[in-house]
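Sanity check

After download, print the first record. It should look like this:
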Amino acid sequence: MSNELQGTNLENTKGQDEFQEVEDLIKETLAETQVLENKAAQPAPVQEKVPEQAQQQEKTPVIVPPVEETKTKFEATEINLPRPVEAAAPQKKALPKSVPVTQGEKYDATFREYKVGDIVKGTVLKIDQSGVLVDIKYKADGLILPEEVAETLSGTLEDVVKVGQVIDVLIENLESKEGNVVLSKKQADSEVRWKRAYDAMRKKEVLDGKVIQALKGGLVVDCDGIRGFVPASQVQRQKDEPLDVFKDKTIPLKVIEVDRRQGKVTLSHRMAAGQKSQQDLEKVLAGLEVGQVRHGTVSSIKNFGAFVNIGGIDGLIHLSELSWKRVKHPSVLVKVGQELDVFVLGVDRVNKKVALGLKELQDDPWVKATDYYKAGQIIKVKIVRFAKFGAFAELDHDLEGLIHVSEMCKESVRSPEEAKRPDGQPIKIDDEVEVKVLRVIPEEQKIGLSIKGAIRKKEQEALKAVTPPPEENKVTIGDMVAQKEKERAEREAEEEETENEADAS
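Expected structure tokens:
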């Protein structure tokens, strides 16, 4: 039994020695790693002191087990080993070395990458018989053959493009036999036009198109290169108005259909006219303010006033705002198509209505009304209209006065139609009569007149002319003394009578 016990002790001692060797190896590895990291962090290499334990291990030969066995034992004993105070930081991966870029690669990087079918912009460099040389920022310049410059070439290439001009081109081939990029301006223009037509239809934009031909069924138009057709039913026109009147005119249009297979673009003048007029209306309304003076054209005349177009919107000048004097009908002062300046009286942006005035741009005659007429003055006036309470008369200087029904004649009447002139004839509209000015009130724009007052004044003047003036009585000094004596005697008699009455009482 003693031999077996000794054998067991030897085996245990051997196991402890192996465990100690592994632990020393781990410590040595950690120490070396720390030294390498310190050297990498410091700009100048600094010699680190090697721990004494490591120096002793260097002097003592260490039997290193195989890698796999050591790794296995290390992993198995890692939990049991004491952890170092500072964990080793992971080593940084070395960056791959950059490959030097050659000058040729740098030069190639300045150019763009294109593919066949791209539409790009280029600058015209040269124009000759072979075509148009264009710089498209590529390795090679592009060449447009003469037949690819435009759909129809009636003149020279210089009539279509100019040197230095920036144009749209379509890439047909990236490299020809001559080393140029084959381009086409004709196809690029066509693609741009079709795209613009599609965008206009999608965004419901209003385009301006010139009518180049009037057919029986509609109009052929050109909208900045977009050739299209406007059916007769989509043309905004007056009743029985012929389509020929639109020839060579520029009209608003809206794209309603694009069929590229058949090469057709259908447009509508009616839809665009309504939208454009609405846009113009809102734009004009936004810029209108009360007090502005605008130039316009008389568009129509009604019994109640005249409409004037000011930049796309019709404003109304009411009959009362045409002049300071009364006007029977607007046609007396304005005509359709007449150009004139108007004064903005009001703007209703909700109902889209504008009130205009014409008399505001004329001198106000009521300012000097008191200079023209005075109370008591006899003048001639013209009867312009009747009212229930009297008759209105037209005066000079664009003024108007009122003859009340009680002042129409000497007799009492209930209506102005019953009034009669001094000769017994009834007073009618447009008659000229004499009136007396009763009052002038400029701030209320009122002038009171009287036919009866004028008649009485004339009668008084006639009576005064036939009646002799009364004789003047001469008074002497004696008469004055006698009058005073008479008055004194009367006073004394009154005093005496007063005293008698007092005694009697």
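If your output differs, re-run the checksum step. Summary of this record's structure: Residues 1-15, 44-99 have pLDDT under 50 and may be disordered.
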